[in-house]
User: Fold ABC transporter ATP-binding protein from Streptomyces inhibens.
Amino acid sequence: MNQRTDALSSPERPGAVVAAADGLTKVYGEGETRVVALAGVSARFLRGEFTAIMGPSGSGKSTFMHCLAGLDTPTSGTARIGDTDLGSLNDVQLTKVRRERIGFVFQAFNLLPTLTAWENITLPCDLAGHTPDQAWLSDLINILGLADRLGHRPAQLSGGQQQRVACARALATRPAIVFADEPTGNLDSRAGAEILSFLRSSAKELGQTIVMVTHDPVAAAHADRALFLADGSLVHEMPDPTAAGVLEQMKAFDVSQRVGRP
Ligand SMILES: Nc1ncnc2c1ncn2[C@@H]1O[C@H](COP(=O)(O)OP(=O)(O)OP(=O)(O)O)[C@@H](O)[C@H]1O
Assistant:
């Protein structure tokens, strides 16, 4: 990939809080089927910060991300993007916030099969009724090495190329925050490393705030910090995670789950 990120804009107000969760709680079902998926999670996400969300299966990672991104409604607590409390918005306003201020990258790429790479990338701008910022898009496309693939449809692209298109789409509107859900889960290690290196450089050099859910300690090691969830609670924060450090932490969860948590 071309690493020409230096020509792009510098982060605005590094350190500003761009998203926040306060006491996020999500309870599914009732009676015997009641599940507390999130038990009061609070966290801040700063401009230009790359956060990995980790934890055992069923610990609440997806629920946390979905509540923070306005894809699910918490039972109590608040999720904010910038100064906007997502709970105060009606459906139309929420859709607008998701389209204009949030970017998404999914494990399964989620590109529209009938659209070309270029049409997929510009779709969020089209839906928001904005003229795409051509200079910004062209920089993104160059960084991601997609310039000669723009007329291809997803089926004509490799998995790694499809995920790079998805990354360009996620950043196309210059969102406040990008949520990536297992973005390397369907990729081989080389294509995965390219995506992770792009996410890292977009945080470092473009000031893009990124929150990534992952099971992979190697992926988490690209982040500035890892937040660990267990049983719906935030139990540990690791700054500058290493793959070995994350693996140790995950093993500790396995042991505590086997012996039974207090
Ligand atoms: N729609 C739902 N209805 C009932 N329970 C749910 C629902 N969605 C999630 N849960 C439960 O909430 C808990 C947290 O689920 P969640 O998917 O957030 O965990 P996760 O950490 O993302 O898991 P994984 O790593 O396996 O994807 C789990 O016990 C799950 O079974």
Summary: The radius of gyration is 18 Å. The helical segments are 61-68, 91-101, 117-128, 134-143, 159-171, 189-206, 217-220, 243-259. The longest helix spans residues 189-206.
